[in-house]
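ARCHIVE CARD
Drawer: 12
Card no.: 0347
Subject: one protein chain, sequence and derived structure
Cross-reference: see card 0346
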Amino acid sequence: MKENILKRHKFNLKNGDVVTSSLKCYASDNLLEKYSKDIKLEIGKDEFLKGFDNLLINHLKKFGLKKDFYILVKPNGANLEDDSLQNQSLKFEFSNFKVESKDKQPEEAKKTCKNEEKLKELTEKIAKLEQNLAMEQYKNITEQMTFKNKVKELEASLSEKLQSALEEKTKHLESQFEDSKKFVLQKFLDALMDPFNNFVMATNAGKNSDNEIVKNYCYGFDIVKKQFIDALEKNSANIIDPELNSKFDANW
Protein backbone atom coordinates (compact mmCIF):
# COMPACT_ATOMS: atom_id res chain seq x y z
CA MET A 1 0.00 0.00 0.00
CA LYS A 2 1.39 3.30 -1.06
CA GLU A 3 1.38 5.85 1.76
CA ASN A 4 0.73 9.54 1.12
CA ILE A 5 2.68 11.41 3.77
CA LEU A 6 0.94 14.56 4.99
CA LYS A 7 3.55 15.51 7.55
CA ARG A 8 6.97 14.00 8.05
CA HIS A 9 7.52 15.32 11.55
CA LYS A 10 6.07 13.74 14.66
CA PHE A 11 2.45 14.63 15.40
CA ASN A 12 1.00 15.20 18.85
CA LEU A 13 -2.59 14.06 18.93
CA LYS A 14 -4.39 15.65 21.88
CA ASN A 15 -7.50 14.95 23.88
CA GLY A 16 -10.39 16.76 22.27
CA ASP A 17 -9.06 16.37 18.71
CA VAL A 18 -11.49 14.70 16.31
CA VAL A 19 -10.23 12.04 13.87
CA THR A 20 -12.08 10.57 10.87
CA SER A 21 -10.98 7.60 8.78
CA SER A 22 -12.00 4.44 6.99
CA LEU A 23 -10.77 1.63 9.24
CA LYS A 24 -10.18 -2.05 8.61
CA CYS A 25 -9.21 -4.39 11.42
CA TYR A 26 -7.43 -7.73 10.87
CA ALA A 27 -6.72 -10.49 13.36
CA SER A 28 -4.15 -12.95 12.03
CA ASP A 29 -4.96 -11.72 8.50
CA ASN A 30 -8.69 -12.30 9.03
CA LEU A 31 -10.93 -9.24 8.55
CA LEU A 32 -12.93 -8.41 11.64
CA GLU A 33 -16.22 -6.97 10.36
CA LYS A 34 -17.15 -5.71 13.82
CA TYR A 35 -14.26 -3.26 13.90
CA SER A 36 -14.01 -2.48 10.18
CA LYS A 37 -15.98 0.69 9.44
CA ASP A 38 -15.82 4.45 8.97
CA ILE A 39 -15.02 6.09 12.27
CA LYS A 40 -15.25 9.55 13.75
CA LEU A 41 -13.72 9.68 17.20
CA GLU A 42 -13.06 12.39 19.76
CA ILE A 43 -9.70 11.55 21.28
CA GLY A 44 -9.77 10.97 25.02
CA LYS A 45 -13.23 9.40 25.17
CA ASP A 46 -12.27 5.87 23.96
CA GLU A 47 -15.41 5.75 21.83
CA PHE A 48 -14.13 2.91 19.61
CA LEU A 49 -12.23 0.57 21.96
CA LYS A 50 -10.90 1.21 25.40
CA GLY A 51 -7.16 1.83 25.01
CA PHE A 52 -7.49 2.50 21.27
CA ASP A 53 -7.03 6.28 21.64
CA ASN A 54 -3.68 5.84 23.45
CA LEU A 55 -2.58 3.36 20.77
CA LEU A 56 -3.32 5.96 18.09
CA ILE A 57 -1.66 8.81 20.05
CA ASN A 58 1.55 6.82 20.57
CA HIS A 59 1.76 5.76 16.92
CA LEU A 60 1.36 9.31 15.53
CA LYS A 61 3.84 10.66 18.07
CA LYS A 62 6.40 8.12 16.86
CA PHE A 63 5.77 7.96 13.10
CA GLY A 64 4.02 11.23 12.31
CA LEU A 65 0.75 11.98 10.55
CA LYS A 66 -0.06 10.29 7.24
CA LYS A 67 -3.18 10.00 5.12
CA ASP A 68 -2.98 6.20 4.88
CA PHE A 69 -1.15 4.05 7.40
CA TYR A 70 -1.49 0.96 9.54
CA ILE A 71 -0.70 -0.06 13.09
CA LEU A 72 0.56 -3.54 13.97
CA VAL A 73 -0.18 -4.84 17.45
CA LYS A 74 1.56 -7.93 18.81
CA PRO A 75 -0.37 -10.37 21.00
CA ASN A 76 -0.96 -8.71 24.34
CA GLY A 77 0.83 -5.66 22.93
CA ALA A 78 -2.00 -3.25 23.70
CA ASN A 79 -4.45 -2.90 26.55
CA LEU A 80 -7.65 -3.16 24.52
CA GLU A 81 -11.08 -3.60 26.03
CA ASP A 82 -12.07 -6.69 23.99
CA ASP A 83 -10.39 -9.73 25.63
CA SER A 84 -10.80 -11.71 22.41
CA LEU A 85 -8.23 -9.41 20.80
CA GLN A 86 -5.58 -9.75 23.50
CA ASN A 87 -3.90 -12.95 22.29
CA GLN A 88 -3.92 -12.13 18.57
CA SER A 89 -1.72 -10.22 16.20
CA LEU A 90 -3.76 -7.22 15.09
CA LYS A 91 -3.51 -4.87 12.16
CA PHE A 92 -5.47 -1.62 11.97
CA GLU A 93 -5.47 -0.10 8.48
CA PHE A 94 -6.40 3.58 8.22
CA SER A 95 -7.26 5.27 4.93
CA ASN A 96 -8.10 8.92 4.27
CA PHE A 97 -7.14 9.72 7.86
CA LYS A 98 -7.92 13.29 8.94
CA VAL A 99 -7.50 15.22 12.17
CA GLU A 100 -9.52 18.24 13.22
CA SER A 101 -7.57 19.86 16.02
CA LYS A 102 -9.47 21.43 18.89
CA ASP A 103 -7.00 24.32 18.67
CA LYS A 104 -7.84 24.91 15.02
CA GLN A 105 -11.16 26.50 14.25
CA PRO A 106 -13.20 24.97 11.42
CA GLU A 107 -13.90 27.17 8.43
CA GLU A 108 -17.49 27.73 9.53
CA ALA A 109 -16.28 28.77 12.96
CA LYS A 110 -13.76 31.11 11.37
CA LYS A 111 -16.43 32.62 9.15
CA THR A 112 -18.74 32.95 12.14
CA CYS A 113 -15.97 34.61 14.11
CA LYS A 114 -15.22 37.00 11.26
CA ASN A 115 -18.91 37.76 10.87
CA GLU A 116 -19.19 38.38 14.60
CA GLU A 117 -16.19 40.71 14.43
CA LYS A 118 -17.73 42.56 11.48
CA LEU A 119 -21.06 42.70 13.29
CA LYS A 120 -19.34 44.05 16.39
CA GLU A 121 -17.50 46.63 14.28
CA LEU A 122 -20.73 47.66 12.53
CA THR A 123 -22.56 47.81 15.86
CA GLU A 124 -19.85 50.08 17.26
CA LYS A 125 -20.02 52.28 14.15
CA ILE A 126 -23.81 52.46 14.40
CA ALA A 127 -23.58 53.30 18.11
CA LYS A 128 -21.04 56.01 17.32
CA LEU A 129 -23.23 57.39 14.53
CA GLU A 130 -26.26 57.35 16.83
CA GLN A 131 -24.21 59.15 19.50
CA ASN A 132 -23.06 61.75 16.96
CA LEU A 133 -26.64 62.13 15.71
CA ALA A 134 -27.91 62.56 19.27
CA MET A 135 -25.21 65.17 19.95
CA GLU A 136 -26.08 66.97 16.70
CA GLN A 137 -29.79 66.92 17.58
CA TYR A 138 -28.99 68.22 21.07
CA LYS A 139 -26.83 70.93 19.51
CA ASN A 140 -29.65 71.90 17.12
CA ILE A 141 -32.19 71.95 19.96
CA THR A 142 -29.83 74.06 22.07
CA GLU A 143 -29.26 76.46 19.18
CA GLN A 144 -33.01 76.68 18.57
CA MET A 145 -33.65 77.38 22.25
CA THR A 146 -30.87 79.98 22.25
CA PHE A 147 -32.34 81.56 19.12
CA LYS A 148 -35.84 81.58 20.64
CA ASN A 149 -34.49 83.12 23.85
CA LYS A 150 -32.68 85.80 21.84
CA VAL A 151 -35.87 86.49 19.87
CA LYS A 152 -37.81 86.81 23.14
CA GLU A 153 -35.14 89.13 24.55
CA LEU A 154 -35.24 91.26 21.39
CA GLU A 155 -39.05 91.32 21.47
CA ALA A 156 -39.01 92.35 25.13
CA SER A 157 -36.35 95.01 24.46
CA LEU A 158 -38.20 96.35 21.41
CA SER A 159 -41.50 96.29 23.29
CA GLU A 160 -39.93 98.21 26.16
CA LYS A 161 -38.33 100.73 23.81
CA LEU A 162 -41.57 101.08 21.84
CA GLN A 163 -43.56 101.58 25.04
CA SER A 164 -41.05 104.17 26.22
CA ALA A 165 -41.16 105.93 22.83
CA LEU A 166 -44.97 105.89 22.84
CA GLU A 167 -45.10 107.31 26.36
CA GLU A 168 -42.59 110.01 25.44
CA LYS A 169 -44.48 110.80 22.23
CA THR A 170 -47.77 110.89 24.13
CA LYS A 171 -46.33 113.27 26.70
CA HIS A 172 -44.93 115.43 23.92
CA LEU A 173 -48.28 115.49 22.12
CA GLU A 174 -50.11 116.24 25.36
CA SER A 175 -47.67 119.04 26.05
CA GLN A 176 -48.13 120.40 22.54
CA PHE A 177 -51.89 120.08 22.91
CA GLU A 178 -51.84 121.95 26.21
CA ASP A 179 -49.63 124.64 24.73
CA SER A 180 -51.91 124.91 21.70
CA LYS A 181 -54.98 125.03 23.93
CA LYS A 182 -53.42 127.73 26.06
CA PHE A 183 -52.45 129.69 22.98
CA VAL A 184 -55.95 129.43 21.49
CA LEU A 185 -57.53 130.21 24.86
CA GLN A 186 -55.24 133.16 25.35
CA LYS A 187 -56.30 134.66 22.04
CA PHE A 188 -59.92 134.04 22.94
CA LEU A 189 -59.49 135.64 26.37
CA ASP A 190 -57.67 138.59 24.86
CA ALA A 191 -60.60 139.10 22.52
CA LEU A 192 -63.11 138.63 25.35
CA MET A 193 -61.54 140.97 27.88
CA ASP A 194 -62.62 144.25 26.32
CA PRO A 195 -66.31 143.29 25.93
CA PHE A 196 -66.27 141.77 29.44
CA ASN A 197 -64.71 144.87 30.98
CA ASN A 198 -67.23 147.04 29.16
CA PHE A 199 -70.03 144.80 30.45
CA VAL A 200 -68.73 145.09 34.04
CA MET A 201 -68.33 148.86 33.81
CA ALA A 202 -71.81 149.20 32.30
CA THR A 203 -73.45 147.17 35.06
CA ASN A 204 -71.53 149.09 37.72
CA ALA A 205 -72.63 152.37 36.17
CA GLY A 206 -76.22 151.15 35.94
CA LYS A 207 -76.26 150.42 39.64
CA ASN A 208 -75.62 154.14 40.27
CA SER A 209 -78.46 155.15 37.97
CA ASP A 210 -81.47 157.10 39.31
CA ASN A 211 -83.72 154.83 37.32
CA GLU A 212 -84.85 151.98 39.55
CA ILE A 213 -85.63 149.74 36.61
CA VAL A 214 -82.09 150.14 35.27
CA LYS A 215 -80.67 149.43 38.72
CA ASN A 216 -82.69 146.27 39.05
CA TYR A 217 -81.50 145.05 35.65
CA CYS A 218 -77.91 145.77 36.55
CA TYR A 219 -78.20 143.85 39.81
CA GLY A 220 -79.66 140.98 37.80
CA PHE A 221 -76.69 141.17 35.44
CA ASP A 222 -74.43 140.40 38.42
CA ILE A 223 -75.56 136.79 38.08
CA VAL A 224 -74.40 136.74 34.46
CA LYS A 225 -71.17 138.43 35.53
CA LYS A 226 -70.62 135.72 38.15
CA GLN A 227 -71.13 133.03 35.49
CA PHE A 228 -68.56 134.77 33.25
CA ILE A 229 -66.05 134.90 36.09
CA ASP A 230 -66.59 131.20 36.97
CA ALA A 231 -66.10 130.21 33.34
CA LEU A 232 -62.89 132.26 33.09
CA GLU A 233 -61.46 130.81 36.30
CA LYS A 234 -62.17 127.26 35.09
CA ASN A 235 -59.96 128.06 32.11
CA SER A 236 -57.12 129.40 34.31
CA ALA A 237 -58.05 133.06 33.79
CA ASN A 238 -58.10 134.86 37.13
CA ILE A 239 -59.89 138.20 37.44
CA ILE A 240 -57.73 141.00 38.83
CA ASP A 241 -59.93 143.54 40.58
CA PRO A 242 -57.59 146.00 42.34
CA GLU A 243 -58.96 148.57 44.72
CA LEU A 244 -58.67 152.22 43.87
CA ASN A 245 -55.33 153.77 44.90
CA SER A 246 -53.95 150.27 45.87
CA LYS A 247 -50.25 149.45 45.34
CA PHE A 248 -49.37 147.58 42.13
CA ASP A 249 -48.42 143.93 42.68
CA ALA A 250 -46.02 142.68 39.97
CA ASN A 251 -46.71 138.99 40.89
CA TRP A 252 -50.14 139.23 39.33
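Annotation on reverse: Confidence is low (pLDDT under 50) at residues 1-8. The beta strands are 18-27, 30-31, 37-42, 69-73, 90-100.
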